[in-house]
Amino acid sequence: MSTMAQTVENVAAAARSGVGALREDDLARIAQATETYESLRPVPCTQCRYCMPCPHDLDIPRNMALFMDGHIFGERRMRQSRRQYLRMDEKARAGACVQCRECEEKCPQKIEISAVMPRIHAELGE
Predict the structure, then answer these.
(1) Tens of each residue's pLDDT in the chain, 126 residues
(2) Nearest-CA neighbor of 117 among 104, 102, 99?
(3) Measured between alpha carbons, how far is 64 from 60 in angstroms, rounded to an integer?
(4) Which of 7, 50, 77, 123 could lock 73 by a disulfide, CB 3.0 to 4.6 Å apart?
(5) In the chain, where are the structural domains located?
(6) Is the pTM of this model over 0.85?
């Protein structure tokens, strides 16, 4: 907010919000969007970064983000993800993962990162 009018508008919007403020069709639309998103993303990574730091300097969140972007947004984005992956420092890429699994102990989503990294490298780096 940068003006008093925006502040007043936001306070009014907040006053109208709360539990039960959404209509059934709004909730159905949100549920459908969530279901579609969940069906497109190949791993449930939320980019929380709890997996970091990797003791081997792998950039796990960056690898996951490039991988998911390619899958969610289609082939054009996948090509872009591949280019960005190949520009990363080699030791930060998924292909450098030594499967130590230290990151998996920290992951709140319980992602089997050691199994995902070879898949990421196969799709983005080879």
Answers:
(1) 899 999 999 999 888 888 888 899 999 999 999 999 888 889 999 999 999 999 999 999 999 999 999 999 999 999 999 999 999 999 999 999 999 999 999 999 999 999 999 999 999 998
(2) 99
(3) 6
(4) 77
(5) 44-126
(6) no
